[in-house]
Amino acid sequence: MAAIRLQPEDPDVSQARAIAAADLISDDDRSVAADSWSIKSDYGSTLDDDQRHADATDALSVAALRAASDYSSDKEEPDAEVVTSMLGFQSYWNATYADELSNFRVHGHAGEIWFGAEVMETVASWTKSLCTDICQGHLLNPVDDEESGSVEQSCKDLISWSVLDIGTGNGLLLQELAKQGFNDLTGTDYSEGAVDLARCLAVRDGFTDIKFLVDDVLETKLERKYQLVMDKGTLDAIGLHPDGPIKRIMYWDSVSRLVLPGGILVITSCNSTKDELVLEVDNFNQRSICTSQEPGTVGDQEVGRDPPFRYLDHVRSYPTFMFGGSIGSRVATVAFQRN
Q: Whole-prediction pTM value?
């Protein structure tokens, strides 16, 4: 059991929106929050947004896809109910980063580091080692078509790897990656306050080359694909929205378009175990293959040949504990490679 899950919050909380977010959320809730990210409390009104939401709903209705895989979940039964939280709403993160930006301007505080500084440093150093191993051929890169050339060529120098951090929050993970030698760094967050704070911290700390953009991963406007995509708590926050299951489907559809073929997606979560993340990717792969085989389907051609992602590796150095006869950790970091 590798995750600590929130208990359902008191329904009265939802009526207290006028109270500051810090007063609504307990320290235990905050430990699950992860980086601020892109949950919209409304769906927007464009046809594209409505259609994407409808597509995700349809996919969810037929997603009895808990098929057996090489990586079984450590839970004997699925959750009886979906746990939601204020941390799944845009309003929470806007209020949080407004407060943290104000504290930075007055006191110079960087704000809270979700999962803690030690986990952040572990993620950055482990990710560098993983990318180096891929470059040196220690980990098999199954992608051998021409589209993977941009990843293979950049293996000679990690400085040239393009890196995207979705739900970047205060941007400190990108600073850690810069210390590890990565140079082409971009952070996105749907909260303007988070992006403003990340920019201020990057200037203060001397990382002026890091780019920060306001963008919602569920409705991303980014046209570029990246060789390395980082997610530290974003998927956790998405899952805490009342429509979390649908939004997680939308997340995978979107993220799969942001990672270059042969590129890497690294997810750090405190709400999902390694096995649960692998199973979620397996389900997404199955949905993608089924969709690509439908008559008249128009989409990425490579989806029809191979599943979008494959499990690559996970962090094994996090402290573990015993609960209910199972051994696990409070945080899971898992890497997937884009086929």
A: 0.74
Q: Exposure pattern of 178-200 as b/e (b: 16+ CB <10 Å)?
A: bebebebbbbbbbbebbbbbbbb
Residues in the chain: 339
Residue 45 lies in a domain: no
**pLDDT reported for residue 129:** 95
- The CA-atom distances, in angstroms, between 157 and each of 67, 120, 134, 151 are 39, 23, 12, 10
Question: Tell me: the pLDDT tens digits for 209-237?
Answer: 999 999 999 999 999 999 999 999 999 99
Q: How far apart are CA 277 and CA 266, in angstroms?
A: 11
Domain CATH code at residue 233: 3.40.50.150
Residue 297 lies in a domain: no
Distance (Å) of CA 325 to CA 82, 170, 282, 321, 322: 24, 37, 26, 10, 6
Residues 6+ apart with CB under 8 A from 144: none
Q: Rounded to whole angstroms, what are the CA distances from 178 to 127, 161, 186, 247, 262?
A: 12, 11, 11, 30, 22
Both structure tokens of 321:
């504990």
In the chain, the number of structural domains is 1
Could you tell me the residue range of the domain that residue 126 belongs to? 86-138+150-291+306-338
pLDDT in tens, 238-260: 999 999 999 999 999 999 999 99
SS3 90: helix
DSSP designation for 279: H
Give bridge partners of residue 253 from the DSSP assignment. none
Answer whether residue 68 is part of any domain.
no
Are the C-beta atoms of residues 114 and 170 closer than 8 Å to each other?
Answer: no
Q: 85's torsion region: left (phi>0), alpha (psi -120 to 50) or beta?
A: beta
Angle at which helix 192-204 crosses helix 172-179, to 10 degrees, equals 40
User: For residue 8, is it within any domain?
Assistant: no
Tokens, residue 167: 């739900």
